[in-house]
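@channel anyone free to eyeball this complex?
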Amino acid sequence: MPPPVRLLRSSSRALLIGVLVAVFLAPLVVMFTGSLRPPGLPPPRGVELIPQGAGLSAYAATFTLVPFGRALLNSVLIAAFMVPLSVVTASWAGLALAQSSGWRWRTLAGTVLLLEMVPGTAVWLARFAVFKVLGLTGTPVPLVAPALMGGSPLFVLLYAVAFRRLPPELFEAARLEGAGPVRLWRSIALPLVRPTTASVALLAFALSWRNFIDPLLYLSGEDALTAPLALHALELLGSTQWPVLLAGAVVVTLPAVLAFLGAQRMFLGEERGSGWLGR
Amino acid sequence: MKARAPRGREAMLWLAAPFLAAAALLVGLPALLALGFAFTEYDALSAPRFVGMAHFVRMWNDPLFWTALGNSLLFAGLAVPLRLAVALGLALLLHRGGRLARAAVFLPTVVPDIAYALLWLWLLNPLYGPLALALKAAGVTSGGWLLTPWGARGALVALTVFQLGEVFVVLLAARRELPEELYELCELEGGSALTVFRKVTLPLMAPTLVLLAARDVVVSLQTTFVPALVITQGGPRYATTFLPLYIYENGFEYLRIGYASAMTWVMFLVTAAMVAAQLWVLREWRASTTRQA
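replying in thread with the prediction:
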């Protein structure tokens, strides 16, 4: 290919990528700039990239209208249980799936696929009834319980694929030395799939952090607000003060974005085999 | 007991015990319970009362149920192909070079649903939302997207297209699994980009695409809930009343738990049928390609 054609091609590709990045980031950027507008002013009449008199007063209003600090703390506590528990149970089930064969494999794989096909919305109602009978509504237990099944069947699948890629001789050798399942998991399997663990941890955090419907169904009272519920409460206050609502949205979004930026290197990397499927 | 402690590959199944137990308690038991509720009148206050098929008859005659089912199917029919096509395009464009661009594409996916819904409620605000203001500045005056049925549906589809990170990452990984030598060969033979896509990339990635489509159909039944609740409240004129929203209203607001359970089972069966149909297509397609080869 002659150099000018190649130059044209690569620069048009760069332009296309630039436009795409702008399109995908635009909603988040305007959410942030919109939150900087001082509340109480009449709505803007035209497009404004940086609002006049930009400041953080909307954030102060957000925190006084709703107990956001307490809600953030609750969400962090729930995530602190959710994430490690999801990683452990998902990697256990994933290792079992990767190592089993015959009817055991069929049972496990069938369960994972079936779970993947049940819409979360389909079990709300009856699951609520189960927890009510157990006397656990009003406690955080129903929120954390899904971590016992790996958080999401997707996480189990990700681990199973990653473990399948490890050389089987590793496991056979350790087994000959008398290592049991838990030791195989802890000292061989888990240390070799760090990128997968990072991805699953991030996704489990995002799942736990964004959870809106479970806290809405199971928790009540001001002390039991989680971050998404606090934002919902802010909305229900009937605030037409968009800067305040947007500031609340930024507060709820920021931890998830920071967690993602910390972990993205692990699953957006360039190497073959990198990604969620780990190595 | 200790002496017979299980060793070897069979013992690995024990690691799945917490997962299986939790799945049975959190999904299996509720599913059976919902099946039981479906044949009873139950309001969570008094004991359930057996009513036989009454709920299913009522569902058959409930125009809102059919509207909600139609809306859910329509949403899946619009959003799933669009999300897959956009994610595939992005994965092919961005699988090399520009990790920042990949991060930017993934970023909207991590925004919590409720914040995301509020953000779009503001973006689409007909009077002072940024989109309306930008259009007004450009001389186009129309901001009533959420006031017409198709505008509201389109808006909900559009906002789910931005949250395609999971599909995108899986397609990125699938693209990287394809042998680079194949593409070098194509370049030597001088095939156009479109030919390479049609003859090499698409057939090799088709199985992944079908599996993702099956999963996305299921996911679409969940992703509609919060936006429909926050942005459109099921309106205008029930245009965005999806099955999960209708089930939620019946079960938790009107306490018609029996009726909601019956609808839940119908929703599950419809999803299962759609997923099964897609997997069947994949199997047929695989069988036909191996026969050709």
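from a first look: Chain B touches chain A through 94 residues (CB under 8 Å).
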